[in-house]
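Entry: Cupin-like domain-containing protein
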Amino acid sequence: MSAACDEQEVTLVLGNREAGATRLVKASLRACLARLAQGQPLWGDGSQPAHLKEFDLLGTAPRLRKEAPAAALCPAGHAVFSSAWLGGTGARTGLHYDYLDNRATLIRAAKRFFLVRPGVVERIGAMSSKYDRYARLAATDVQALSRLPLRQGDLLTVDLYAGDAIHVPQGWWHEVVNLQPSILLSGFHCPWWTLGPRWLHNAARHLVHRLSPVRPRNCTCHPHAPSPCALSHHPDPGPAPRSEGPAE
């Protein structure tokens, strides 16, 4: 895969930026791919697991489109936005939901999805004030939710292996962790007729955020120190069944 990509600098996310500090570092794309292929951390000694997130892999290496056509899994008549997630063992996201439906395919290794039914986080008042352009974040995590008296089907665990795909509908909360050095290709999609209003709303929100006089920004796109609601360190997720229920 590294041979299909031009040499370029990319921005890696260190740690869990949705739940804690937003830490960003620069790295070589080819070096990251080489380290991933060897099972090594993308950055440093791995004490802070690094992710290359929301990366346009198919735009960087167009010839990969034939091997991984993200649009093929999405409904006909939908606009599709493809993004890649690359990271070593232990790299994870915080609990969040996306503003678009997502059909994600695991290209390499193993990854675990924790899925939380819409309304669960809202019901306990655990919405985060941290800004993310493409998602809504939670001020809690799956470990905390698992200790609550949830209804059956409110919390699901699904493990993906190379070649597996999952559909995560808009509004479904999810937290994702790499069980091994992994590459995942997401196909975020929506009907074409809704694209214009969605794009305008997103662009307006992001412009307001960029022009905000408040410093430091509490967001996932600008580096800053941990917020007061930052979550504690997550231990190794340990083994789990391949699936405890459907993703939909």
